[in-house]
Design a protein that fits this description.
The protein is an alpha+beta fold and about 240 residues long. It folds into two domains: about 1-70, Winged helix-like DNA-binding domain superfamily/Winged helix DNA-binding domain (Arc Repressor Mutant, subunit A, Orthogonal Bundle); about 75-240, Beta-Lactamase (2-Layer Sandwich). Helix content is about 45%, strand content about 20%. The chain contains nine helices and eight strands. The chain has helices spanning about 1-15, 25-30, 35-50, 65-70, 75-95, 135-140, 145-155, 170-185, 220-240; strands spanning about 50-55, 60-65, 100-105, 110-115, 130, 185-190, 195-205, 205-215. Strands 5-4-3-8-7-6 form a six-stranded antiparallel beta sheet, with helices on both faces. Strands 1-2 form a two-stranded antiparallel sheet. Strand 6 and strand 7 (about 195-205) form a beta hairpin. Helix 2 packs across helix 3 (about 35-50), helix 5 runs antiparallel to helix 9 (about 220-240) and helix 6 (about 135-140) crosses helix 8 (about 170-185). The longest helix is centred in the C-terminal third of the chain and has 21 residues, at about 220-240. The radius of gyration is 19 Å and the shape is globular. The termini are far apart. The relative contact order is 0.12.
């Protein structure tokens, strides 16, 4: 039994390396020198418990949501959350709107920490949604290297126009990517319900997360936009400096 537990952790750690790239079952077995049948049985169990996620279209595995939910498995994420929480509290005090800290998980944006406002009417967004459909997700996608972007498109395709207007063709997609990179932030104003602005969090020169402020669209205006931008960018820089 102890050997099986060790192998299960080995598999989780293997999948966590280059966490955005799905790992084939054969790749896991070969990389860990496991018999295919043994590897398949452990992977099946981990998938059933939510610690791994099987991507049918890509024929591979990523860490599942349950893996991110374990306090002890978050590692550096917990330090990131602790630092970010202080800055997110400052945002809530200054602008009285919601903020979140998100990462990229496959084709989705995954929220790892939230700070909700005390507004009577609040914007709501799920913990996990298509990255193309959020300011956090768009920023995290855009801040990948060109090679990573190419692989992302090959894996998940271009965004549908309904999810990301003006980015549904390859040329337009890369125009939007360059705009986000040039601005240093991503802003969604095209939603009829929620407006979100996201800024990058860096560690060792690499974007590892995104801090986003979001609100109902009826409260958004040019003055609020300026405040959101200043608060989000400043907070993201402070978090990055402490990591």
């Amino acid at each position: 039994m102890i050997q099986v537990i060790h192998r299960a952790f080995d598999i989780l750690e293997f999948v966590a390396r280059d966490a955005e790239r799905p790992k084939l079952l054969s790749e896991i077995a070969t990389g860990l020198q496991l018999k295919p049948g043994t590897c398949a049985n452990i992977v099946k169990t981990l998938t059933g418990r939510g610690y791994l996620e099987k991507l049918e279209a890509q024929k591979g595995y990523l860490l599942g949501k349950q893996a991110f939910a374990l306090p002890g498995s978050q590692g550096q994420q917990q330090a990131l959350i602790d630092i970010a929480d202080r800055e997110m509290e400052k945002i809530r005090t200054a602008i009285h709107e919601n903020s979140l800290l998100g990462i990229l998980k496959g084709e989705n944006r995954l929220v790892i920490h939230r700070k909700n406002s005390d507004q009577l009417v609040q914007a709501h967004t799920p913990d996990e949604k298509k990255a193309y459909d959020s300011s956090t997700g768009r920023l995290l996608i855009a801040m990948q290297t060109d090679e990573q972007l190419k692989k992302f498109i090959q894996r998940f395709g271009l965004p549908p126009a309904a999810l990301w207007p003006h980015a549904h063709t390859k040329n337009r997609f890369f125009e939007q990517v360059e705009k986000i990179r040039s601005n240093g932030y991503a802003l969604i104003e095209d939603s009829v319900q929620i407006v979100g602005l996201a800024a990058p969090v860096y560690k060792d020169g690499r974007v590892i997360a995104s801090l986003s402020i979001y609100m109902p669209s009826f409260r958004f205006n040019s003055s609020i936009k300026a405040k959101m931008l200043k608060l989000a960018v400043t907070a993201a820089r402070k978090i990055s400096a402490e990591l």
